[in-house]
Write a structure and sequence with these properties.
mainly alpha
Length: 77
C-alpha cells in the first residue's frame, strides 16, 4: 500500500494514531475530497513535485471553504 502508514511500524502507528485521534474529532470527508487526496497520495509515490503542484491547485480551488484545511495539511507533508 502507498500510504502514510508504511512509514511506521505497527506499534508506532498505533501510538501515533491513538494520540492524534484522542485530540481530534473527525468528520467524514466528502467523496470528491477523498478522491482528490488519494490522487495526491498516488502522485507522491513517483513525483513529489507533481503531487505538491496538485495539492496547491486544490488548496486554491477550496480556498476559504471548510475543505481547504485538508489540502493545507497535504501541502505541508
Amino acid at each position: 500500500r502507498n500510504d502514510q502508514r508504511n512509514l511506521f511500524t505497527n506499534e508506532e502507528w498505533l501510538k501515533l494514531n491513538n494520540k492524534w485521534n484522542k485530540q481530534k474529532n473527525w468528520d467524514q470527508l466528502d467523496d470528491d475530497v477523498q478522491r482528490m487526496l488519494k490522487t495526491i497520495e498516488n502522485l507522491a509515490v513517483n513525483d513529489l513535485k507533481k503531487a505538491y503542484a496538485k495539492t496547491l491547485s486544490y488548496q486554491t480551488k477550496y480556498a476559504l471553504t471548510e475543505n481547504e484545511v485538508h489540502f493545507e495539511v497535504y501541502a505541508c507533508v
